[in-house]
UniProtKB/TrEMBL annotation:
Its main location: membrane. GO terms for biological process: monoatomic ion transport; sodium-independent organic anion transport. PROSITE patterns: KAZAL_2, MFS. Residues 398-447 form the Kazal-like domain. It comes from Naja naja (Indian cobra). This is Solute carrier organic anion transporter family member. Residues 37-564 form the Major facilitator superfamily (MFS) profile domain. It is found in: Cell membrane.
Length: 564
């Protein structure tokens, strides 16, 4: 096997142009074991992306359950990449010398263990969720490098791209299923089965609602556990071919993620010379930076998209996850498919692909202004976003207290919102002017905002928001097109013999500088827009209860220049 073949394998990782039927194109060597391995590998690809999607669909609920900020939740999410990077070099190199199917099975079992911290609730219980995600990253490590090298070693060369594409196509259904499952469980209260559901006074749209997020992880654990079982019954090798050199096999084993260290094994001298050559390629470096910004923005986008819809449109966590699954992800995948189809049909070269990529980039950038123009106004909350008279900050200064509740001595750390007849939300019945007792009538502040109201009553929970401006979805196909175009230009910018190393180095940079920090700094910026923080029983700061929707919308548009 030569480097050109390794390059062809790495290219198919970035494209999903084919929808193969491996049943009609069986391997010529040990067809039963081969087809079992192909099906099992495809299911493991589905399992790992499914588990990742369940994590992202539970973001808001993790924040509320453990009283943490978005940046902390982003750090938990980055634990997967940390675990993966910790062992990728070790697994890729030494795993290739062992029983690869069994190593993959062990990895799947470890992934399932990473989902077993679901019912721990203490002040710092989020650390256990982080460790579980770290464990999931470790378990995912052998699936790609060992699975693909196993396919490559024991299959015909012309069939390998077909089978890899099949795995990639299977992995696409993971995020869809994960967010749909998250939507279902988000409608169930977190302690379902342990409390009387009829006694719960808040609804799924309430900012205090926590869904049964732990069920997501239970199902993900079962799926990843099952995905590892078939690998236990596969042989260490089929009909082994003897035409692969050590360097070729080494490159194929680790091209998905090239660890630039000799901590575990000595690297060949040619490695450093090759690395110097690709780092001296200015076009490669420019496209590498572009890919890093592109990937970082997309990671931040998909991580907090459901949260964005919750804050902008007043949707429940359940509905936000559902829309992400049926409206956002399919459009993103459609954009990726169309870009690959166009490149294949018209046989675009590096210059044409680059031009098309930047044309799509410009169209995507134009949709940035839709974010700014179609963003929603702040939810009217007395003392936070509007005055007690219902005026905005531009008209009058906003103060948390007013003459109508000045004698009530309300707790400013409290967040038990009520909705007044006047359409304003109040932080609590006390702030609505009902006194310190939890009553919901004769509230003096409600009558102040609207003198025509006679009863001045309120109901428990926030007032319903209504804003159906989902125009931000329009730009997604164009933005997704950019990814494949940049990738094609990227891998064609280096000589043929360096393409495997170039792809490996790109994956290292994206995962270490994009996958890990992106959710953290995007979350930190989102935290800056928080208007009201919750409080834990111990008095420490909890999760955010309400955000500045206007500022949040602007931050959402800032991701677009990075992406484009």
């Amino acid at each position: 096997m030569n480097l050109s073949r390794a390059w062809n394998m790495s290219l198919i990782f970035k494209s999903s142009l084919f929808f193969p039927s491996f049943l009609s194109s069986a391997l010529s060597l040990n067809p039963i074991f081969s087809q079992v391995f192909i099906a099992a590998l495809a299911f493991s690809y589905f399992g790992k992306t499914f588990a990742g999607a369940t994590m992202k669909s539970s973001f808001t609920q993790l924040e509320r359950r453990f009283g943490i900020a978005s940046s902390t939740a982003g750090f938990i999410d980055g634990g997967f990449e940390m675990g993966n990077l910790l062992v990728i070099a070790f697994v890729s190199y030494f795993g290739a010398k062992c029983h690869r199917p069994k190593i993959i099975a062990i990895g799947c079992f470890i992934m399932s263990l990473g989902n077993c911290d679901h019912k721990i609730v203490t002040s710092y219980a989020w650390i256990f969720v982080l460790l579980g995600n770290l464990l999931r990253g470790i378990g995912e490590t052998p699936i790609t490098p060992l699975g693909i090298s196993y396919l490559d070693d024991f299959s015909r060369e012309e069939d390998v791209p077909l089978y890899i594409s099949n795995d990639q196509n299977a992995s696409m259904f993971g995020p869809l299923s994960g967010f749909l499952l998250g939507s279902v469980f988000a409608r169930l209260y977190v302690d379902v089965g342990f409390v009387d559901v009829d006694a719960i006074t808040i609804s799924p749209t309430d900012s205090r609602w926590v869904g049964a997020w732990w069920m997501n992880f239970l199902v993900a654990g079962v799926v990843t556990l099952i995905s590892g079982i078939p690998f236990l019954f596969l042989p260490k090798s089929l009909d082994k071919k003897e035409d692969a050199s050590f360097l070729d096999k080494y490159l194929v084993d680790i091209f998905h993620m090239c660890m630039l260290t000799d901590m575990f094994f000595p690297l060949p001298p040619e490695f450093f010379k090759s690395l110097k050559r690709i780092l001296g390629n200015k076009l490669y470096l420019i496209l590498l930076c572009s890919s890093l910004l592109n990937s970082s923005s997309f990671i931040g986008y998909i991580t907090y998209q459901a949260k964005y819809m919750e804050q902008q449109y007043g949707l429940s966590v359940s509905r936000s996850n559902f829309i992400t699954a049926v409206a956002v992800l399919p459009v993103v995948l459609l954009g990726m498919f169309l870009s690959g189809f166009i490149m294949k049909k018209y046989k675009l070269g590096i210059l044409s692909a680059t031009k098309m990529g930047y044309a799509a980039s410009f169209i995507g950038f134009a949709f940035t202004f839709l974010y700014l123009m179609l963003g929603c106004d702040n939810h009217p909350v007395a003392g936070l976003t509007v005055t007690y008279d219902g005026n905005t900050a531009a008209q009058n200064p906003i103060s948390l207290s007013s003459a109508c509740n000045s004698n009530c001595t309300c707790a400013t750390s409290q967040w038990d919102p009520v909705c007044g007849e006047n359409g304003l939300t109040y932080m609590s019945a006390c702030f609505a002017g009902s006194g310190r007792e939890p009553v919901f009538h004769n509230c003096s502040c409600i009558g102040k905002a609207d003198a025509a109201l006679k009863n001045s009553s309120a109901v428990l929970g926030e007032c319903r928001r209504s804003d159906d401006s989902f125009m931000d979805f329009l730009g997604k196909p164009y933005r997704s097109t950019i990814t494949n175009m940049v990738d094609l230009s990227f891998i064609r910018s280096v000589p043929q013999d360096l393409k495997s190393l170039a792809v490996g180095f790109m994956m290292l940079v994206i995962r270490s500088l994009g996958g890990i920090p992106a959710p953290v700094y995007f979350g930190a910026v989102i935290d800056k827009t928080c208007l009201k923080w919750g409080s834990k029983p111990c008095g420490q700061k909890g999760s955010c209860r309400i955000y500045d929707a206007v500022q949040y919308s602007k931050l959402g548009s800032l991701k677009m220049p990075l992406y484009t």
